[in-house]
Amino acid sequence: MKKEFTVEYQQVLVGMRIRELRKKQGMSQEALALRSGVDRTYITTLEAGTRNMSIVSISKVCHGLNLSLEEFFTSPLFEQLIQDDTEE
Predict the structure, then answer these.
(1) 33, 39, 87: which is closest to 65 by C-alpha?
(2) What is the pTM of this model?
(3) Which residues 6+ apart lie within 8 Å of 65 measured at CB?
(4) DSSP class of 4
(5) pLDDT tens digits for 12-56?
């Protein structure tokens, strides 16, 4: 049986991943925002899981983290989402 993941749940996962990677690099939200070309408050809302990101925004944040999109989404956080998507 396929588990349904809400948009809100997916936003939280993306926010958790951003926070995880940012902290792993010892970077502040402000530093990530500057490197990504976005406002610091935008990073705050992303990490809180309260904003739905476009692929362009995800790409900007990945650039700021010096990661590819593939590296960003290669995480145990996203494994269940990927498995469910491929089982259809």
Answers:
(1) 33
(2) 0.85
(3) 18, 21, 22, 25, 27, 32, 35, 36, 72
(4) P
(5) 999 999 999 999 999 999 999 999 999 999 999 999 999 988 999
Nearest alpha-carbon partner for 12 in 48, 63, 54: 48
> What is the residue whose two structure tokens read 């989402």?
81
Joined tokens for residue 16: 């958790």
Please give the C-alpha separations between residue 48 and each of 3, 13, 45, 52, in angstroms, as whole numbers: 23, 10, 5, 11
33, 37, 72 from 77: Cα distances, Å: 23, 25, 10
Answer positive or negative: Cα dihedral of 55, 56, 59, 65. Answer: negative
Q: From CA 1, how far away is CA 67, in angstroms rounded?
A: 34
